[in-house]
Amino acid sequence: MKIGCRFRGERAASHAMRGALLTLTALLAFGASAPRAAAAAAPLRLIRTVPLPGVQGDFDHFAVDLEHDRLFAATEDHQTLEVFDLRTGAHLGAITGFGMPHAAVFLPASNRLLVVDSGPGAVKVLDATSYKVLESIAVVPQADSMAYDPREHLMYVTGGGDDAHLDYSLIGVIDTRRDVKVGEVRIASTNLEGLALAPGGRLLYVNIRDHHAIGVIDRRTLKLVKTWTLQGIRANTPLILDARAQRLFVGGRGPGVFAVLDAGDGHEIAALPAPDGVDDLSWNPSSGRIYFPCMDGHLAVFRQLDADHYESLGTVATGYRAKNGILVPQVGRYYVAVSAHGNAPAQLLVFQVLSSPET
User: Fold this and answer.
1) DSSP code of residue 57
2) What CATH number is associated with residue 18?
3) Domain total for the chain?
4) Residue 325 lies in a domain
5) Following DSSP, what letter does each residue of 120-155 receive, concatenated?
6) Can you state the percent helix, strand and coil of the chain, rounding each to 5?
7) 35-71 b/e with 16+ CB inside 10 Å = b?
8) Is the pLDDT of residue 22 over 90?
């Protein structure tokens, strides 16, 4: 299927022009506003730095177990899941036996951890107490990003593309009640990234990064039904859906951009300058805050004023290649993984989320 977007009539043309102007304005503003934005402290306070001596290379995504106060961080290069106490940040140890772990989800009803491991192209199912591998479900070559729907008990996993030496990418679907692969979507792309869905909803959104586009997939038919080419946003990596307002939050790289799209027709609502190298997004609907961690050593915080208006709340310094983080609003904490660099060890940074009169 050809990746692209067909515009119809004046409304579509207007959306395209507005999106291009929004993005151009954001990119022009980036150079002028970056020093001032960097000086404005985001509503976070660093309360603990946890050194991780011996952990080398890049981190990837986090997972949370609220029942047992555990935080898991995938170390894609070090081949472990590092385990932390959610309340204190204390390092509890590491789970080994992975080829290249990228993402995980904890299922409280069955006390299992599901870990996406690109080494074997599988999702590994672990007992969350003993950390013993119970199953290894072959899903897609070079399995990478994932999204989980707790209502439907379905996990969607991206893979294929350049990393697998393929000229197409795949999204595999796993039924987590039966631990079996139940479907697959094939997309003419060499690099898929973030996925977003509304639990129980019909649509799945995916960043088609090599085409600077977002794909819309019908989850019932497992077909790509729409593609939206982004206007000026490049290397679109993380993706979040605000289901209530029907807005998609997108992080772009080179230069960094935080963008907001209409989830119904894909037109750009807003584009704000941001630090560069984002890999994760966290969203708190209660406060309207969006958290944006980046490789360049800065974490930006944005706020949704309403569905169509957004503002920057400033940035905080993090560290080397600190592109992955997670908000856990239940404990009022935001966590960032910092990679080892020179003589400085890898670290987990624990931030307290600060309230403000606006929220």
Assistant:
1) S
2) 2.130.10.10
3) 1
4) no
5) TTEEEEEETTT--EEEEEE-STT---EEEETTTTEE
6) 10, 50, 40
7) eebeeeebbbeeeeebebeebeebbbbbbbbeeeebb
8) no
